[in-house]
Amino acid sequence: MIGYVTVGTRDLQRAAPFYDALAKELDTPRMMESDSFIAWARADGQAAGIGLTLPYDGQPATVGNGVMVALAARDETQVDRLYQIALDQGGTCEGPPGPRGEGFYAAYFRDLDGNKLNAFIMTPGFQPE
């Protein structure tokens, strides 16, 4: 089970509102923050958290090729909302909301630093394409 994931940023103050907006929709508050990072998670620990950080080594943050953070949504409507929130916050489209095989609905987007994320819902009848 994944406890949390962390993505890098070049500008914490610029990037934070993007994640604040997604976290608000997911009812996941900020749980920790400092001058170099912010973390969002639920106190009950029932879902993985996400962290946003300036790299520890002081070098510029870079995007991992093939790396993606997936945000679990309640339903297709929330997938659609998360996608729109991401775009409204300055994110870019990597694939609009829609079915991706039987029982899997997702939308793909990038944050302001180019980190790839998606919002998804998987139903019990999931069958990959």
The strand line-up of the biggest sheet is 1-4-3-2
Poorly predicted tracts of residues: none
Describe the main β-sheet briefly. Answer: 4 strands, mixed
* CATH classification, class level: Alpha Beta
Any idea what the radius of gyration is? Answer: 14 Å
Give the N-to-C terminal Cα separation. 25 Å
Counting H and I runs of at least 4 residues, what is the number of helices? 2
CATH superfamily membership, which one? Answer: 2,3-Dihydroxybiphenyl 1,2-Dioxygenase, domain 1
**How many individual β-strands?**
8
Strand content: 35-45%
Number of discrete domains: 1
Helical content (DSSP H or I, runs of 4+): 10-25%
Structural class: alpha/beta
**Helix-strand pattern, N to C?**
EHEEEEHEEE
CATH architecture: Roll
How would you state the average pLDDT, rounded? 94
Could you please say which CATH topology applies here?
2,3-Dihydroxybiphenyl 1,2-Dioxygenase, domain 1
Indicate the overall shape: globular
